[in-house]
Structures are given as C-alpha cells and as structure tokens.
What does this fold into?
Amino acid sequence: MKVTWLIPVILVAGVLIGYGSGLLAVLLEVREKLQEEEARDQRDYVLRKQEAEDKEETFREKPPRADRYGMTWMEQVASPALVAILFMLFVLFSPARHNLRSLLPDLLWVVVFVHIALFDIKHGYILNWVTYPALLVALVLSFITPGVGFIPALVGAVVVYLFFALPSLIAGGRLIGGGDAKLGAIVGAVTGLGLHPVNFTALEAVFLGVLLGGLAAIFMLVTRLKGLRDSVAYGPFICAGAIFVLFRGI
It folds into this structure.
C-alpha cells in the first residue's frame, strides 16, 4: 500500500503535537516558578562573589546558568521538528507501523521523551508533574501493548529505577539526579523486563543511554565545554536510548 500521501499528514500532526508539547513546557516553567528560582540563585551568587572580593579571597565558583524562559527556539522549532521527524520515521519504517496497538503507544512515548529531553536540556530539571503521570500511563498501557505486559513493565520500572537510584543514594546524590532515576522507571515500564518471554529491552535502552551520555561527557571534557566538577544532563541520553529501542521494536 502506498503511504506517500500520509507523509504530509504525519508531518503536520507531528508539528502541531510538538508545538503543543512546547506550550506545556512553558506552562510548567510558570507552575514551578523556575524563573524566580533562577533570579534568587543569581542574587546569591553575586552576594557570595562580593563577599569573597571584600575578603580579598579567590572566588572560583561559576555563575549559575542563565536560561531564557517562555517560547524559545526549543519550543517553537526543536520540539515540533523532532516530533514530526520521529513520527515520520516510526510510521514509515518501524516494525510497529503494521500494528496500531504498538504504533500509537510508541508515538505517545516519542512525544513524552522529546518533551523531557528538551526540558532537561533547557533547565536541568525532570519534573514530577511529568514523570509520575507518565509512569502511571506506562503501567496502564502495558496491559494492551504487544510485547510488554504489566508484570514486565512493573519489573522494568523497579529494576531501572534502582539501577540509577541506589548508586546515587550511596554517593550522596552526586552521581545522578532523582529525576533521572524516575525517568529510568518510565523507560523500564515502557519497554519492559522479563524472562517469559525473554525481554531485556529496558536494559538495552539504559545501556545505550548511559553509553551516549558517557561519550558526550568525554567529548565535553576534551573540548573543555565542561569541567570535571560540572554536571551533565543524562536525561536526554536516556530518552534517546528509549526512543531508539522503541523504533527498533520490542
């Protein structure tokens, strides 16, 4: 069956949904008062710097990252473009394209993971307002999603969450944030983990995300975009790993 006529429809739908995802991100910025929080951080930084200068002490602290708020290029361009392109790839090339019960949940998670990744890049946050509902939806959809099932989804959520949360807890929260661990739980619930039938997709998604994040961190260190003490947002890489395994097929 020819699907050429579907391409414009898919692209338009992706652009509209991606733009809507961007609007939601802006609403969440306002809801969480992130701009006010940044202003406080900037004021505290200036005070600490002035105090150090008054004491003639060396001040090596980097200033807080200044973010733009509202509808930036990330909401207006990046989100619509990424969602539209991924929609087209999934509908035209993924194994799930032959089964709406598989394809529609995949498209939903494309939107969710793009939203989380861009918000994390922009603000360094993965909000509970997104992760908790997404996790609940993933568990509910697991009952009807081919290749997953509720028990594998639940096991995947718990195992991947612990994979991220326990090392960070032992290290006092310095390794990875709680938001990343909750994102891992979503990935585990979406992809599943079980032995009957064998399904290690959740582990594959996590491994790929950690690998991509590690390579990106090394690149930023080598190019001096980041220092050894600077944090790296792992959320986008975890999302990329999840999208890849969904595209390949569970």
